[in-house]
Specification:
The structure is a homodimer of 309-residue chains.
Chain A lengths: L3 E7 L3 E8 L4 E8 L6 H15 L7 E6 L3 E2 L4 E5 L2 E7 L1 H9 L3 E5 H16 L11 E6 L3 E7 L2 E2 L31 H4 L1 H5 L7 H9 L3 H25 L3 E5 L6 H15 L9 E4 L6 H11 L10
Parallel strand pairs in A: 1-4, 4-8, 9-12, 12-13
Antiparallel strand pairs in A: 1-2, 2-3, 5-6, 6-7, 9-10, 10-11
Helix pairs in contact in A: 1-2, 3-9, 6-7, 7-8
């Protein structure tokens, strides 16, 4: 029998739930408004209702829950997230596991998306199956910049479970203040919100459209964002030496226009010592990456799965 | 019987050889001038003579060779190194293994030093033995800046075997040109050579001494170097989330003066989202770190050891 999991991706706006198979295919899915202000107990209840609507729970081997961090996968606790206002030290993993009587894991949403792209993204892109996949970094360009890294087939977590926060790499020392308290973070220059903030009443999408039509001011903002992304890519190259760096999130809808601009800056910035460059590519799973990734992770977590207590 | 290895650290100036036990202790050691211009065959011959002088080769379980990169540990080949002029695609691992009829590994010298500090450095510092060691990054501040990272107890290598080149992280976009062809690398601001290059006839040691005695110009150069190191530490924090970042190499002789300055800048630059900061510390094994580390690695390499063919 095929192994199935429930992938739950809790976002600031929507919560997505899908039944995921061991190839990363979505067999059924739904979504509802997160409304974090109502509290975690109520959200967990609505996850349960939706899960029962989607599938016979007895056929679900494991539950994967993705959420914005900082959080602890080990403890299954969301510490406190700017996107889930009012949540402090919420043991969401056990809350859901107990309600559904299935074992669960909790994972940072950007790590989950990276894992989804790593396992299922190549297949979605039509690449030959079974090819050895190399280490990979995903940068999700949305309101903020999330990121995850896969090293040796596993999520890079770090000692404090907070590795791969590439959005808060300093790329412009002394530069613009970031919401995190640092100055000159990648996120303060190359997230959709950062780009939109440079104009009145324009979204990042509008800014890219204007840049593409030759608007000089929009063009400069896009150039600056892409140059910062390219600096980040050089630094990721020297840090992890991955095979690929992928761009996902809403802003990656700018597609080849974005990619060509980042690549041009990367080529201008990179070293000439050794030909160890990562490929720069677009992500392939869109908004489902996190839900798929955390579902796949749950199926592969074995002893790390926890029954709610 | 105790397992012994031969640790060979090939530097641009000297080659060091030591008999290393499985705790990282040096039982015997020697060194000689590398003189890379004479070619690798002659150097391999001199390694053999010195090895026989140091120990009964029959008692040596494995040989570890550290060298400046870029190189391939997998293939045992040094591609081409600015510090070993004229060497191109030298299969040094097999050359030494064959001559001594012992299995060997080749490792990047900075990775080897990081491994040495990770395994034997805490012991050297008098820390309680047996404590779980967390992920660690070593920055060796010498003529250049070498670095190595230990993640989950293993060297972080990357897809192209060239991860942890933190010296070439861009910390000053558009800044000073580095020998690697990039601009604004950490190495161009915070290596001993970069610091000395700002003055006529002063070594980095002189510059630190002058800064310590209150010289304003020297003080500014030291501040700038420490600020760049602190930016690097913030970026390493967000990349790997390690437990510790260590400073080694010749310049770390500046000791607490250097450390206090880097820490001060780090505290000013870091975020306020989550308390996931690495400890910033001095390395402990000095110039022997690479030789000890590569000896220890050889003893733990098992199936990765290669007999010369």
């Amino acid at each position: 029998m095929m192994s199935l999991s429930l992938g739950v991706d809790i976002g600031g706006t929507d919560t997505k739930i899908g039944v995921i198979d061991d190839q990363g295919a979505i067999l059924a899915q739904t979504r509802f408004a997160t409304r974090p202000d109502r509290g975690a107990e109520s959200l967990a209840d609505e996850i349960v209702v939706n899960a029962h609507n989607l599938s016979e729970i007895d056929g679900i081997a494991a539950i994967g829950i993705g959420a914005p961090g900082p959080l602890s996968s080990k403890d299954g606790v969301i510490f406190k997230s700017p996107n889930l206002a009012g949540w402090v030290n919420v043991p969401i993993r056990d809350m859901v596991a107990r309600r559904l009587d299935r074992p669960a894991i909790l994972e940072n949403d950007a790590n989950a998306a990276a894992y989804g792209e790593y396992v299922a993204g190549q297949r979605a892109g039509g690449d030959v199956d079974g090819v050895q996949r190399g280490d990979m970094v995903l940068l999700t360009l949305g309101t903020g910049i999330g990121s995850g890294a896969i090293v040796g087939g596993e999520i890079l977590r770090g000692c404090h479970e907070n590795a791969s926060e590439w959005g808060h790499m300093i790329v412009v020392p002394g530069g613009r203040t970031c919401g995190c308290g640092q100055r000159g973070c990648l996120e303060a220059y190359a997230s959709a919100a950062a780009i939109a903030s440079r104009f009145e009443k324009m979204s990042a999408k509008d800014v890219f459209a204007a840049a593409r039509s030759g608007d000089g001011v929009a063009g400069e903002v896009v150039e600056e964002a892409c140059r910062c992304l390219a600096i980040a890519c050089v630094n990721i190259q020297h840090a992890l030496n991955p095979d690929r760096i992928l761009f996902g999130g809403g802003m990656s809808a700018a597609g080849d226009f974005l990619l060509a601009c980042v690549r041009r800056h990367f080529d201008a910035l990179r070293w000439n010592v050794h030909d160890d460059f990562p490929a720069l590519e677009l992500a392939r799973l869109g908004n489902d990456a996190g839900m798929i990734g955390v579902g796949l992770l749950a199926l592969q977590s074995g002893d790390d799965l926890v029954w709610g207590s």
